[in-house]
Amino acid sequence: MLTNPRVSLTLNFCCRALAGHAHWQNVAKVKGANDAKKSKLLTAWIPKLRTAAKVDSNLERNKSLQKLVDQAKKEGVPPTAIKNAITAWDNQDFKEHQFGIQGKEGFIALIDCATSSVKKTENDIQTLLRRHNFKYSSVGFMFSKFKDLECQLPEKISKDEIEELALQCGTEEYHVDSEANKIVFSIDAEDEKELIGEVKNLELDIISNTYRYVAIESTSIVNSETKRRIGMFMKSLEGMSEVEDIHHNVENMDEIMNEA
Q: Which of 126, 182, 185, 253 is buried most deeply by CB count within 10 Å?
């Protein structure tokens, strides 16, 4: 039994301090988990909203953007983040930029970004490159460039009518999403003006207008350490809200990402 009041007070103070420490540890864990969840949510939705808003940021005219906004709200994306994403192109400093990178075993990639500070984004990617022993490189000439134009299809259009539509637009390469009633026309980037002109003449609503880069020569990564570095690098890029798309030449990228 403790009879010294000073010892009793000291022990009481220590117990309270330890209890307080445990409480704030739990708060920090919960906050950390919530912050990670919020960050993942934003990086998943912001590029989508930004891409859709690039065609037209007016929600009344751009029904596809309105649908995305409704879905983002349902998923819990903060209203301020949604507003900033769809109005990003109103900022004169906001621009698109592409970075070329090179790694081991012939790994190359093009990183499409949309940012109000190209220098900051460049520095952020440079930090990742150094961490994984990759480097910036001019690799654009090693890719073929295509235009992908996603449009809303007219109601109750038949398969034959879709084929005729694609021919009218000057391309035989297209993909149809029957559930969403959308079509994506693909054409060599050099012929994009003709495609966009035909789409407008046919009065089709454009949902998104993007470029796709396909590597002229692909490679398969064998070395386990190189696989690990590429996987970690790609996941870090996917966590950056400035990154719109990543084009690469790795055949077994799905395998690499599953193992990362």
A: 185
Q: How far apart are CA 19 and CA 214, in angstroms?
A: 58
The per-residue pLDDT for range 120-174, each reduced to its tens digit, is 999 999 999 999 999 999 999 999 999 888 888 888 788 888 888 888 888 878 8
CA distance 96 to 93: 10
Question: Model pTM?
Answer: 0.72
Clarify whether residues 168 and 77 are in a common domain: no
β-strand pairing of 95-102 with 135-136: antiparallel
2 belongs to a structural domain: no
Residue that has been written with the tokens 């295509």 in this structure: 146
Q: Tell me what the pLDDT averaged over the chain comes to.
A: 83
Same domain, 134 and 159: yes
- C-beta of residue 75 within 8 angstroms of C-beta of residue 41: yes
- Count the Cβ atoms, other than its own, within 10 Å of residue 217: 9
Alpha-carbon separation of residue 177 from 152, 181, 184, 206, 245 (angstroms): 10, 6, 8, 14, 21
User: In Å, how far from its chain's centre is CA 95?
Assistant: 16
Domain end, chosen from 90, 125, 160, is at 90
Query: What sign does the CA torsion over 74, 76, 79, 83 have?
Result: negative
